[in-house]
Structures are given as structure tokens and as C-alpha cells.
Amino acid sequence: MCLLGTACAGSEETGAGGGAADDAVPAGDGYPVTLENCGETLTFEQAPERVVVMDGASVAEVSTLLALGQEDRVVSNQQSYGMSEIEGRAEAIADLPTGGVETNDAHDIPREAMLGLAPDLVLSTTAYGFDSTNGFATREDLAKVGADTYISPQGCDQDTSSMTIEDSYTLLADLGAVFGVPEAAEEIVTASRDRVSAVEAAVDGREHPAVMVLFSNMSMGANEFSAVAVNGIYDDILASAGGTNVFAGTTDGSFADLSRETVAATDVEALVVISFNDPDAESYAQDLLKEFPQWPAAQNDTYTVLSDSAYLGPDNDEAVDRIARMLHPDAF
């Protein structure tokens, strides 16, 4: 499973979809647009009009489209977490068309259904979404019917352990260019950079508490704690917020698979629980603190619950701000 990220670049001003389209460049300006994407050169003569968003266990791509005000171009969206830090975002995603697609055993759009949607652009979080062995249409299949394909940053080889907040900005810039709204993308990126910089300045010089980041009620390995997030964008967000990952170095990948004994023996000073389609992640976090009362996090009740701001997407600054206020409340 590929779990990636988002954040609130000026979310108070962007509305239900997080859109910043009011200042967008009219479609048609700035074309043709050429991008290099995972070994392929993409050229757009105009903004795509029939966009398909594959699942990929992400909302990065659909949230970015909403933030850029491009929701009317979506003919099928398979991404949803059912919740968001951004007011109205989850509802806006739920209102998008699905195209009546019945997903396959790999939980995404099968080849024939994809071709039947007649897309002119298909977005996938990683190359997984274009792998024929999963029953999906390949990039070559889609090119033959006139559809471009875009794989999000760090998704070319399906290894997201090197992902950073900068990759979220790249996704915004790329899609802003593709849809003819580069100024809207730049506005969001600038607001996010400014907010992250302000947080970094506020926490500068302070001790970095040891933070455990994990997904609620999720099993991804053999151990009880197999969805512990490390490396990549998770650690990048923590660093900007004035924290450090307590399980850094336990794996080269994006998720550590840890036993209960290892978790119990670790001094967790703060807890970040990420909800992925879990309607009660708050209770999960509270139960975890009760289960490990020896943690400093439990003794000080230091935790926060996030959802889509914690990985690739337009809202990483929201995660940075919330975590920083949890770790360093007197800095704000």
C-alpha cells in the first residue's frame, strides 16, 4: 500500500475544495507545456478535459486538483479518506464523479474500464497504477487512445522513502502548468513555504522531542505495530515542526514493522496518529497512551491526530503547524 501526503496552504482562504482558482491563469495561456515524468516526455497543447484519478491509497492528486480549482475536469476519481484537516475538502472529494467504475482485486480501475472512460489524462500516485500485472492499463495502452499519464513525484519506482515537502510543491507546480493555472499553484506553494518558515523560526533552537508516527488501526506486516511511519515526508514534516522520529534508522523504507515489546521499551515523548479511513482515530490515540503509561507522551498527554496533511499533497504546512503547536505550545 502506498500512503502519501497533503497540507493547508492558506486553507482559511481557499474554500471547500481548497481551491485558489480565482486568480488562475485562463486555460490556453502558456501552452504548449512540456514535462519530464518518470522517463517519458509529456506535452500538453491545452488543459486536459477528461481526467481520471486512480486510487493509490492517496488523496494527493485529487486534493491538488481541488486546490487548483480543476474539479470540473474530473470524470472519475477513486481517491477518498472520508476526512481531512481542510474544512470542506472531504465533502468536495465525495462529490466528485466516480465514472461508475467497479474496481478490481487490486482495488483500482481495471484496464477495460479505464479505456472505457476515454480519459485524456490519468493521474497515479506511483507506477503501480500502470502495471499490467495488476490488471491496469499501461502508459502505452493509454497513449494509444490519446491519454497522457502522470506519476506523482517519488512514485516512479514506488519507493517513497525519500519523499519531502518539496515533492508536494513539485506536484502542485506540475499540475498547475498542465492545467494552465501556474499562478494559482505558485500562490499555494508560496503561502505554504511562508507558513512552514514561520513555524521553523518559532521552534528554532529548541529541543526536538522524540515522536512516534503511526497509522491508526492498520496492519502492514507481521508485528502488532507494522504501520509505523519513518523516513520520507513524515520525517521532513517532523523536522520542520521541531521534532524527530523516535524510530528513525529502524528501516530503509517508509514503514517500520515493530513488536509491542520494542514499542513499549521506547521513550515516546509525543504521538502523531494518522487516520486513513478510520473514523475514530482519536480514540485509537487515547487508547495507545493508556496502553503505554510509561511513555512521557502518556504522562503529558502529548498527541495529535492528522489525516491528509501528513503526506504528499497541497497541505503539508497544516501538519507542520499542528505538530509544532503540540510539541512546543509555548512557542506560539
What does this protein structure show overall?
It comes from Streptomyces spiramenti. Belongs to the bacterial solute-binding protein 8 family. This is ABC transporter substrate-binding protein. With 332 residues, this protein is an alpha/beta fold. The protein folds into two domains: 11-189, Rossmann fold (3-Layer(aba) Sandwich); 205-331, Nitrogenase molybdenum iron protein domain (Rossmann fold). The protein is 32% helix and 15% strand. The chain contains eleven helices and twelve strands. The strands form four sheets. A four-stranded parallel β-sheet has the order 4-3-5-6. A four-stranded parallel β-sheet has the order 9-7-11-12, sandwiched between helices. A two-stranded antiparallel ribbon has the order 1-2. α1 packs across α5, α5 (165-178) packs antiparallel against α6 and α6 packs parallel to α11. Mean pLDDT is 92; it is low at 1-28.
